[in-house]
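Help: read this over?
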Amino acid sequence: MPFGERLRDELGAPGKARLLDSSPRSAVWRVELADGRPAVVKQLAAGVGAEAEAEATQRYGREVAALRMASRVRPAVAPRVLGVDADERVLVLEYVEHGRPREGWETEYATALARLHAAGGDGAELPRWAGPDVGDVGSFVAFARALGVHDTAAAEDELGELTLRLGKVSGQQALLHGDPCPGNDLHTADGIRFIDFEQASLGNGLIELAYLRIGFPTCWCVTAAPEPLLAEAEAAYRTAWREATGTDVEGDLADACAGWLIRGEALVQRAHRGTVDQLARVLGEDWEWGTVSARERLAHRLGVVARMTEGSDVLGGLSRLSTDARRRMLDRWPALGTVPRSRPQGS
């Protein structure tokens, strides 16, 4: 376990250490500090070569910056940073015990997410959130055509405008977590705290509020909560944001959900992103990731966006395309299942 002289000078020599489960991108230990407090030691891992080292250093910088911004929020929405060692890409964090999420956890989650987002505003060390681009639009339209949806002109024009709108909201200042998924939300007696800020950025909070409705697009755990609960959670988010900032949320949740729909990268784990056109790939193969398969994820998102944009002046063509594409997916692959309503136990 990397706990060098700098950290020992600040926190003393650690006692018991136990390696915890984590992604290949980091190593995480639970330790006992010299004063008896439990803590978490996290080291950001790098692959081979200068490019991998630079990428790991960037993730480390994002996490440290985001945690320090989040530390201003009370009650807390993230663990406290107890120590850092930038040379080794190591953070020492307050240990937070995760409990079983309460029934209707989505509302508490949305409230905590709004309070986290409101901690943004001066994060010069964080990059801007990057939305979908013309390449994503082209891949999505090509996917629909390959399914046999030929009336795509209106939707294609709308999606071009959508990328411009999402580009504008990316200039906003909310502190975005980057991967606010089940497993990265710790449910405690004092509320929810978020961990793993390696992909943090600045942008519009609706990009992440959309996770509840569109099905956690960067995560293994896709769920589909009932509509009344989603509406309650989204209202709670807007209320918490207003209480924290004195302003109303800017932007359109339908735009945010549509942005996630057209990103093929949101069908695979992070390690596989940027490799191939995932929307083209899903035509020929299906694959499991977490609670659903890739095709099931996509069919769910198509249904969500079709309903949200029905009758819309700016995305009505996308609504028709999404409805048609989803129907053709179910006709072609009739064994596709539905997204579970609840997160798995233990997550």
User: Anything to note?
Assistant: The chain has a mean pLDDT of 94. The CA atoms of residues 86 and 150 lie 53 Å apart.
